[in-house]
């Protein structure tokens, strides 16, 4: 079935390519005409395009001319002219596709044409990159093209205050990372006034490295959390003690591949005996199951000095890719507390979710979404299914001639790295540039020590110092360069043979103290000369390096995902350059050990296989592909599961956020509050009259409830007398009489405090109540999700149960919002003086402090940034970045 789907997708791909080629041909016919324009005439085309749009012409119709204008502007301003395939890639983006373009095909330049075209609508365009450095770099460089054509260009960076963010979002084109865009959306929906809002809508987005952002990072939702109330720490300690007495296999099972645990019947009985309860799975005991599972995971899946270290009484997560302790970063959903209990250190309070959204649902809000990457075809079906995005493979500008050599497989890691060092040493003698990819900084440093012993000069990079790594990776194509890097380091930066002229030129401009935005005129005046000199510097060396075979990419381990392997290979052979790639593997590599342990063990124990002899085996190659397919399948299922559950929340989130936004934007709430009043009165009457005859109704209790809601002006005896006795009462009559009285009392209250004050009070009360009830609801939904998997034991579909119960809880929350809002509006004490009353409460809640922002890092793992005393909504202190 999958192959059939792939064939269908490829058929659509061919049709799209024909359309894209036609666009490129049409753009080329306009080149002479556009080139003849002066700078001022070229810039004036922008206003002409806008006027034509206003007259009803479509963006599709404008595309050829707009793209031709951008191509000419880029050539004049940057000295970079779009190739035909780059125009095709840009057209694919405009049409709402993913453009798969090989590494080195100039994706940064590709984005300029569709960004310009769609920015003409005035609704804004967002360009998403994987880190702040790339966002800043691309907005500075490509922003020169946009500004030349009369458009504004902004960039969202971490720690910007709200005013700065608002200004950047107001630009025609805004660059930033997925986390920054997503968290700004969540913060906007926690705002207490329209003045705090920073975003202005979700029109068109171009996602660079789209597979990394929409696939790898999609397993981790964006979460803003604050400190939760309640003392649950004792349960972490209690369950840590219980689990210490349980035995693996006898009392519980562990699946290390999926990182899940399951408690067996004997284990359940032991836990019940320890706690003195009859049934662990009774509804009242459901929260305990989460503590139990986390305690087992802490014991079995999280290893001290590998996954975390204990420093000065604090549990600190170790980044699996860098081997470094990440200060401030914490596991979510009680996992960190379970590890703290295991290590017998102080347990820090658990956080409560205040706002959350998955990247899938964030990006699906855009009217049009597109993306670029060098590796998307392997995930084409998921892009189509989740985002309705087609993947179009754009041809290379020049034929690819890179040679991908067969994998060399060694018995163990020591033999593998010895062979790697020998290969590097031999090639380094010739001057051929070498890029080595490793899976962690720990292994990078190990290899670095081996190279140092050999006297081989080299650079070592990790994936955290974005600015430095980009500049080093950009120079990794120079003669004699040896660069050891984690697989993801420097992604988004071209490795050009002989060096990257563009980077050299930018560095020179910085040395001269010139900023692309602040000194635009002088920058543009000097750029051509500086860039031309940089190109001369690298041109001669590029020829020498090409004669040596181009860049040699050496992988020291296969990644879990084929895409990451392909990304590493793709560093070599850009733009038709020569290049070569090879992977060195061992049977003790994580991928082989975890997913093909049986075969690995057989080979390891084979005495006829020497340690230092490489194995080239189709069986092993198939095993590697099988292992990668298994991991990709597990990860895809995890993403699908995250999305299924968030889709339930998404419908609720959209309803709540739409209501909040309408209130913030100043919509008159008088009519809405009137409906609230009707609904609350009706619900109270229905509850009191739904059972039995009128003489069986507990009307005294109804009146007590009404008195708590508002200052009721009619008595039960008056209503009974009006109806002609209890026997003649009906629910409809009661509802009509009570509602009439409640509406009268509300009008009376408005006269007492004034209409202006009442409208302001309605806004404050409803906004405050929605915020509080929504936070409570998020907590309840988290609680529901934690235990919902148990429904499978009763032969029920957990997702269906989550949808059903979540909907019921949502309706209950909405009822609570209505009733609490009405009660507060009637009963809140408001000063009678107009000036004092205008400032009356409920005052808007103070911004939450100690917020934590959890989102994916570039490897897709959950990363938490703590904000100690301020929220970006308030520009008081700089947020302190922690991981």
TrEMBL record:
All copies of domain Helicase C-terminal, residue ranges: 416-621
Residue segments, region Disordered: 834-883
Domain of life of the native organism: Bacteria
E.C. number(s) listed in UniProt: 7.4.2.8
One Pfam family in the UniProt entry: SecA_PP_bind
Domain Helicase ATP-binding, chain residue ranges per copy: 88-246
UniProt GO BP: intracellular protein transmembrane transport; protein import; protein targeting; protein transport by the Sec complex
InterPro entries for this protein: Helicase_ATP-bd, Helicase_C-like, P-loop_NTPase, SecA, SecA_CS, SecA_DEAD, SecA_motor_DEAD, SecA_preprotein_X-link_dom
SUPFAM superfamilies: Helical scaffold and wing domains of SecA, P-loop containing nucleoside triphosphate hydrolases, Pre-protein crosslinking domain of SecA
Domain SecA family profile stretches: 2-616
Compartments (UniProt record): Cell membrane; Cytoplasm
Bias (Polar residues) ranges: 862-873
Ligand binding (ATP): 86, 104-108, 494
Catalytic EC class: translocase
Entry GO CC: cell envelope Sec protein transport complex; cytosol; plasma membrane
UniProt topology in membrane: Peripheral membrane protein
Stretches of the chain forming a coiled coil according to its record: 20-47
MF (Gene Ontology): ATP binding; protein-exporting ATPase activity
Catalytic activity: ATP + H2O + cellular proteinSide 1 = ADP + phosphate + cellular proteinSide 2
Main localization, broad class: membrane
Biased composition range(s): Basic residues: 874-883
Family: Belongs to the SecA family.
Function statement: Part of the Sec protein translocase complex. Interacts with the SecYEG preprotein conducting channel. Has a central role in coupling the hydrolysis of ATP to the transfer of proteins into and across the cell membrane, serving as an ATP-driven molecular motor driving the stepwise translocation of polypeptide chains across the membrane.
Subunit annotation: Monomer and homodimer. Part of the essential Sec protein translocation apparatus which comprises SecA, SecYEG and auxiliary proteins SecDF. Other proteins may also be involved.
Designated name of the protein: Protein translocase subunit SecA
Gene name of this polypeptide: secA
């Amino acid at each position: 079935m999958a192959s059939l789907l792939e064939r269908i997708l490829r058929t659509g791909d061919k049709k799209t390519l024909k359309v894209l080629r036609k666009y490129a041909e049409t753009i080329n016919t306009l080149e002479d005409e556009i080139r003849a324009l002066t700078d001022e005439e070229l810039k004036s085309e922008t206003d002409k395009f806008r006027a034509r749009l206003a007259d009803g012409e479509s963006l599709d119709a404008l595309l050829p001319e707009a793209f031709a204008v951008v191509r000419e502007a880029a050539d004049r301003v940057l000295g970079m002219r779009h190739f035909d395939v780059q125009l095709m890639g840009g057209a694919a983006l405009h049409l709402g596709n993913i453009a798969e373009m090989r590494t080195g095909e100039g994706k940064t330049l590709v984005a300029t044409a569709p960004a310009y075209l769609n920015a003409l609508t005035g609704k804004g365009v967002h360009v998403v990159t994987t880190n702040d450095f790339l966002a800043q770099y691309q907005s500075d460089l490509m922003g020169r093209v946009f500004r030349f054509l009369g458009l504004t260009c902004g960039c969202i960076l971490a720690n910007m205050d709200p005013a700065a963010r608002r200004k950047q979002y107001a630009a025609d084109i805004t660059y930033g990372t997925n986390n920054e865009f997503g968290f700004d959306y969540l913060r906007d929906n926690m705002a207490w006034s329209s003045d705090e809002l920073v975003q202005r809508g979700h029109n068109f987005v171009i996602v660079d490295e789209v597979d990394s952002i929409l696939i790898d990072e999609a397993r981790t939702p964006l979460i803003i959390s604050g400190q939760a109330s309640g003392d649950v720490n004792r349960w972490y300690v209690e369950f840590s003690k219980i689990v210490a007495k349980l035995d693996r296999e006898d009392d519980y099972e562990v699946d290390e591949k999926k990182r899940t645990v399951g408690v067996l019947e004997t284990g359940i009985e032991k836990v019940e005996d320890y706690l003195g309860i009859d049934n662990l799975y009774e509804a009242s005991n459901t929260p305990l199951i989460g503590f139990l599972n986390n305690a087992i995971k802490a014991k079995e899946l999280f290893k001290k000095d590998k996954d975390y270290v204990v420093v000065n009484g604090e549990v600190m997560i170790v980044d699996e890719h860098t081997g470094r302790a990440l200060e401030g970063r914490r596991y979510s959903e009680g996992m960190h507390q379970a590890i703290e209990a295991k290590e017998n250190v102080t347990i820090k309070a658990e956080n409560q979710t205040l706002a959350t959204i998955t990247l899938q649902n964030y990006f699906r809000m855009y009217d049009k979404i597109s993306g670029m990457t060098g590796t998307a075809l392997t995930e084409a079906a998921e892009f189509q299914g989740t985002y309705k995005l087609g993947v179009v493979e754009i041809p290379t500008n020049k034929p690819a001639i890179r040679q991908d050599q067969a994998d060399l497989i060694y018995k163990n890691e020591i033999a593998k790295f010895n062979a790697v060092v020998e290969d590097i040493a031999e090639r380094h003698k010739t001057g051929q540039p070498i890029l080595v990819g490793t899976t962690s900084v720990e292994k990078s440093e190990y290899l670095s020590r081996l190279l140092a012993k050999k006297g081989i000069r080299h650079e070592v990079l990790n994936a955290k110092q974005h600015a430095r790594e980009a500049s080093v990776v950009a120079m990794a194509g120079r003669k004699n360069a040896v660069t050891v890097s984690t697989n993801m380091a420097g992604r988004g930066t071209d490795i050009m043979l002989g060096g990257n002229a563009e980077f050299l030129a930018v560095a020179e401009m910085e040395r001269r103290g010139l900023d692309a935005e602040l000194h635009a005129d002088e920058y543009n005046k000097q750029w051509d000369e500086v860039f031309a000199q940089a190109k001369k510097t690298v041109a001669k060396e590029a020829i020498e390096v090409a004669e040596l075979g181009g860049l040699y990419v050496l992988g020291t381990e296969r990644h879990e995902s084929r895409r990451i392997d392909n990304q590493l290979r793709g560093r070599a052979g850009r733009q038709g350059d020569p290049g070569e790639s090879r992977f060195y593997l061992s049977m003790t590599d994580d991928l082989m050990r975890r997913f093909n342990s049986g075969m690995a063990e057989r080979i390891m124990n084979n005495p006829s296989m020497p340690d230092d002899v490489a194995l080239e085996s189709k069986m092993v190659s198939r095993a590697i592909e099988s292992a990668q397919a298994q991991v990709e399948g597990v990860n895809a299922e995890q993403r699908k599961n995250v999305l299924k559950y968030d889709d339930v929340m998404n419908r609720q989130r959209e309803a709540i956020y739409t209501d909040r936004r309408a209130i913030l934007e100043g919509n008159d709430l008088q009519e809405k509050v009137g409906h609230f009043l009707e609904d609350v009165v009706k619900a109270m009457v229905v509850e009191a009259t739904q059972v039995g005859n009128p003489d069986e109704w507990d009307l005294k209790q109804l009146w007590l409830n009404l008195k708590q809601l508002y200052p009721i002006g009619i008595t039960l005896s008056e209503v009974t007398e009006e109806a002609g006795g209890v026997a003649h009462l009906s629910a409809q009559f009661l509802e009509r009489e009570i509602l009439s009285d409640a509406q009268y009392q509300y009008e009376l209250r408005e006269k007492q405090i004034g209409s202006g004050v009442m409208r302001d009070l309605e806004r404050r009360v409803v906004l405050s109540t929605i915020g509080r009830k929504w936070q409570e609801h998020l907590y309840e939904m988290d609680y529901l999700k934690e235990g919902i998997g148990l429904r499978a034991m009763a032969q029920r579909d957990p997702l269906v149960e989550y949808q059903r119960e979540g909907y019921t809880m949502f309706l209950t929350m909405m009822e609570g919002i209505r009733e609490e809002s009405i009660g507060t509006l009637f009963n809140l004490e408001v000063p009678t003086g107009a000036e004092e009353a205008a400032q009356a409460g409920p005052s808007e809640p103070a911004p939450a402090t100690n917020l934590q922002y959890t989102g994916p890092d570039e490897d897709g793992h959950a990363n938490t940034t703590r904000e100690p005393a301020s929220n970006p909504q308030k520009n008081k202190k700089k947020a302190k970045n922690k991981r």
